[in-house]
Predict the structure of DnaJ domain protein.
Amino acid sequence: MTCWDVLGLSSDADSRTIKRQYATLLKKTRPDDDADGFQRLREAYEEALNWQQWAQEQDTITEAVVPTAIAADTLQEHYQQAMAAGLGLEFEVALLKRCISDDEISEEDRSWAFDTFQWLSAWQRLELPQDLIDALTNRSKKALHYSLALAMAQRDEPGFLAAYAARFDQPWLKHPAHTLWFNQMLATLLTESHFWSPTIFEAVRAGQNWYGGEHACPADEWQHLLRRQQGPVYLAHQRALAVTAPDTPQQRAARLLLAPMSLGQRRAFAQRLSEHDWEACRTLAATLKADHPEVALAMPGGTPYFWQDWETAFDTWPLLLAIVLGCLAGALFQAPWQAGALVGTAGDALAWSMAYMAVGALAWQVWRPLAHRLRVLDESLAAKLPRRLCPTRLPLLPVRDLIPGAAMSIAVSLQFGPVAGLTLVAVLAAIGAGKRRARLSVKQWAALFPRKAIGAVGLGAIAFALVFGGLNYLDSRHQVNRNQGLQQWTERVCSRMPRTAEQCQAPATHVQWYGQEAQQ
């Protein structure tokens, strides 16, 4: 440990800084409490002052020997002059400082200094300040890493190979500690880069001797690099699965992530996936993100996990809306419009629609796993359906889509008549056709245009109020008031007439009100 390490200062600290630091440390290290620590502190203080005083005395001599601007043709001569004057160490320290701080020094001069003084090796001077050695180490590592990382970022394969070949001009890399760092840096750089080149990997593998069971590449990065090297074969296999019939979870995961489909088609396809399918999607997405970042960036949103919000979300609102409208249409079509009970009929239809939704949700929990087991048969039957019968983005699956829809349509028709079933089918077809032409889902549209979404909800509420008001108005035209339908005359004259009829507007007379009792 040097005096500078004990004081916590750099070797270029002046005498004032040394004295202040000594006074600060002296408060923490007292001779009564720690005699050995105090002795080390005192010796380090005196050594630092002596060094600083000696450095000042040598400045004038050193300036005559150490060049202020290093030139390749005079560097050796300056060094010989310094050695002749007994200032070899001073020359080396000054040159070391300029190699750290001066960016104008050529690589040739740096190479001469590294070769002559054997910096960053086991044979360098022990008298060199440790902070300068650490600074030189960091600078050399950063420069080497920058040249390699820049070539990878620019996808410059020849540039990377040239920068990697220049490692032979860095003799300090032969030190075991620096060799270990270089292997770790290369492995991390190749692992994390979005750009992948089999040629670069094979060159690095040969140059670093990453062969056999044990080598210098870290185990985790090595497995990752092998997967990336085999990536083209893996991607070709996954893309082949994406265009084949989705008979297995792996094929369905590949279709969702890699098939040439629009975002709307992917979302529609995701509605058909089971838990096993989602597990395959998670596995494939993790592999693409870790080993094929270029492919991952090309996916919707720049991530292979674009489907996460779809995993637990089911697009059930079209069926729910179709059930409500079907029940309302069937009930109102069957209701006697002159009975004055349209509002009550509509209320009963809404109650029945809620019951159908609840029963349908329970039945779907049973039917959905069965439909997934018959997925292969379902896909083959869907391929035979005419495209014009598929209003959605993807072909309808007979077992999964058509049978539940037909069952719900029949159940509604049995309760409210064929008009209800036809309305349900028509609403589903209209929504499917609209979704096929739309570029955004309802959720995305609401997120992008919140004001329009609020306006649409408001218009829906106004439409509901208008329908309710219209039904209530129709009921009022066919309901008698307090003077209608009570006695014989009004039963005869006004019970089957609108209350706006002229003869039914006048209040009932005493005879009309009491009938035969008025004559007694």
